[in-house]
Amino acid sequence: MSIIKKQLKKSQFLTLAELTPPKGTNTDQFIRNAISVKDHIDAFLIPDIPNAIMRMSGFSASCLLQKNGLSSIVQFNCRDRNQLALQGDLLGAYANGFQDVMLLEGEDPKTGDHHEAKGIFDVTLEELFAATKAMSEGFDMAGMELDGSADFLVGTPLQVSSKVSERFHIRNTISKYMDAGVSFFVTQPIFNIQMLSDFYDSVKDLKPNIFPTVLLLKSLGMARYMARNVASVDIPKELIKQIQKSKDKNNECLHVCQQTISSIKEMGLQGVVVSTIGWEHKLLDVLS
Predict the structure, then answer these.
(1) Could you tell me the CATH number of the domain that includes residue 274?
(2) Mean pLDDT confidence for 68-87
(3) What is the residue range of 110's domain?
(4) Which residues lie closer than 8 Å to 118 by C-beta, 6 or more apart?
(5) Domain for residue 246, yes or no?
(6) Which of 12, 162, 184, 235 is the least buried, fewest Cβ under 10 Å from its Cβ?
(7) Domain assignment present for 169
C-alpha cells in the first residue's frame, strides 16, 4: 500500500523531508543525509530537476534510497518529457514499488542553468492527472489497455493564501484537482501560521490532505530577501524581528522551523514537508 495512504488511514501526522538529488554521481552524502533522519520521517520527497537546474533525476535518486530501505515520493513534471516518456516512466516507477508520486508543471528552463534547453510541455498538468487516473483503470492516454494497472496516490503543489479575493479560485482548484484524482497537496514555504490557519478554515470542508512546506531559513539575510523578493512567501515582520533580536541567529532560525512544524501539527493538518534547500545535513537538527 502507498506510504501516505497507510498513514492517512491511521489519521497519523505525516513528516516528509525534501531531499535534492546530487549534481553528479557522488551519492555518498545524499545517502548519509537520508539515513541520518530515517527514524524521524515517514518518507522523502525527491524533486525532479528542481528550479530547472540539471542534476540527477528524481526517479534515479529514489531508486538509490530504495536500495537502502528508505521510502520516497517520486516527482514527475510536464517540462522534461513528452506523453510517451511520462507514461513509460510512471509505469516504471510503479513496477519498481513507487506508488506515491508528485506531479507538477515544472519551471521554465530559461530560469535554470541550461538557458538554451527547451521545455517539452507536451501535456498539461490536468492531462497528466487524467493519465494517472486512466492507468489506475488499466489504460494509457491513447485508450489502449495496459498489461497491469498502476494505482498511484497523486500529489501536486498548491499555492495557498488567506486573501478573500483568492479564496474562491483556490477552493475551485482544490475541488477540481481532487475530482481529477489528486489525493494530497504540498504548499509553498509557510512562515505565517495565522495565514495558513485562515486558509485552512476556508477549505477544510472539502477535506483536502494538505502538507505545508516548512523551510529552514539559513540566515537573517535570507529571511529579509525572501520577504522582499518572493511574492508567494509571506514572512511576517515580527518573525524577522525575532531572528534579528537573537544573539544566536542560526539557532533562532532552527527554532523558528521547529516551532512552525509544531504549530502546523496542533492546527490539525495532515502533515508537513521539511525543506532545507541544500542544507540537508541540517535535517536531523530540525527533526530531532
Answers:
(1) 3.20.20.220
(2) 97
(3) 3-218+268-287
(4) 109
(5) no
(6) 12
(7) yes
Q: Are 100 and 153 in contact (CB under 8 A)?
A: yes
Q: 215-265, pLDDT tens digit by residue?
A: 999 999 999 999 999 999 999 999 999 999 999 999 999 999 999 999 999
Q: What is the DSSP string of 5-38?
A: HHHHHTTPPEEEEE-PPPSSS--HHHHHHHHHTT
**Which one, of 160, 267, 269, 165, lies nearest residue 208 by Cα?**
269
Residue type, 147: D
Handedness of CA 79, 17, 230, 167 (dihedral sign): positive
d(CA 218, CA 175): 35
Q: Dig out the grid coordinates for 53 from the structure.
A: 537546474
DSSP characters for 116-178?
A: T------S-HHHHHHHHHHHHTTB-TTSPBPSS----EEEEEE-----HHHHHHHHHHHHHHH
The confidence band for 163, taking pLDDT boundaries of 50, 70 and 90, is: confident
Beta bridge mates, 206: none
Closest to 154 in 3D by CA, of 79, 207, 102 = 102
Helices (H) and strands (E) in the chain, counts: 11, 8
Inform me whether the pLDDT recorded for 167 exceeds 90: no
pLDDT value of position 28: 97
Model-wide pTM > 0.85: yes
Confidence of residue 200 (pLDDT cuts 50, 70, 90): very high
Residues 6+ apart with CB under 8 A from 13: 265, 269, 270, 271, 272
Query: What's the total number of domains in the chain?
Result: 1
Q: Comparing C-alpha atoms, which of 13, 12, 31 is closest to residue 21?
A: 31
In this structure, is residue 228 part of a structural domain? no
- Decide: residue 231, CB within 10 A, 0-12 exposed, 13-18 middle, 19+ buried: exposed
Contact (CB, 8 A) for 136 and 149: yes
Question: Does residue 67 fall inside a structural domain?
Answer: yes
